[in-house]
Specification:
single chain, about 210 residues, mainly alpha, 9 helices, about 0% strand, globular
Length: about 210
């Protein structure tokens, strides 16, 4: 198997858990689904996925270059990232639930939302959230080799963004089916527990990582 395919598989295994982790993105898609319907939620999902490419872009082009040239920078990112992952794991295990749905104005319910506005809301929700910033820095630092070509790393980002969009499009669809929505919400505690264990494990891996090259 190509080392890049193996690297991508490892990356996606961890990222897949991160996708279902409770957070602002999920709360936004939930709100859009229940307030403005499936179409608005799907456009919001595409906005979230596009913002993910933004995070990948500056991680690969900027921080990645700095870290690859400095063992001090590498260690700073490594320890900050490990601490953040431990924190995420602890919070996930402690809370172990899906985010509460924001209050819905009955006047808004079922009001059509323009596609551009729904897309923009999704993009800003993810782009301005500090959690994806640190998550991507730690994910790429711990799982992607410094020697991996930039074009391959960007390809990883495209795959991850596509997976994120597919996940939230699925959430948008199923949250408009009452029976499925209720089961999804009940599963929140187990989703939180699994996510917590994975985050702590990734934090341990990152803490013991050494700079190669």
């Amino acid at each position: 198997m190509s080392p890049y395919l193996l690297e991508l598989a490892t990356l996606m295994a961890v990222f897949s858990v991160g996708i279902v982790a409770p957070g602002a993105d999920l709360a936004m898609v939930m709100r859009q689904s229940l307030t403005h319907g499936r179409r608005a939620a799907i456009w919001t999902s595409f906005g979230i996925g596009s913002a993910l490419l933004f995070h990948v872009g500056y991680t690969v082009l900027g921080i990645g270059l700095i870290v690859s040239q400095s063992i001090v920078a590498f260690n700073i990112v490594k320890w900050c990232g490990a601490a953040y992952l431990f924190y995420l794991g602890w919070r996930s295990l402690r809370d172990a639930s899906l985010p509460e749905l924001p209050a819905i104005d009955t006047a808004e319910r079922d009001r059509p939302m323009p596609a551009a506005k729904a897309f923009g809301m999704g993009f800003l929700t993810n782009a301005l959230n500090p959690k994806p910033v640190v998550f991507f820095l730690t994910l790429f630092t711990s799982l992607v080799s410094l020697e991996t070509p930039m074009v391959v790393k960007i390809g990883y980002g495209v795959v991850m963004a596509s997976a994120l969009i597919l996940w939230f499009v699925g959430v948008s669809y199923f949250l408009t089916v009452p029976a499925v929505r209720d089961r999804f919400l009940r599963a929140g505690r187990w989703i939180g527990r699994v996510t917590g264990v994975v985050f702590i494990g990734l934090g341990l891996k990152l803490a013991t990582e050494r700079m190669h090259g």
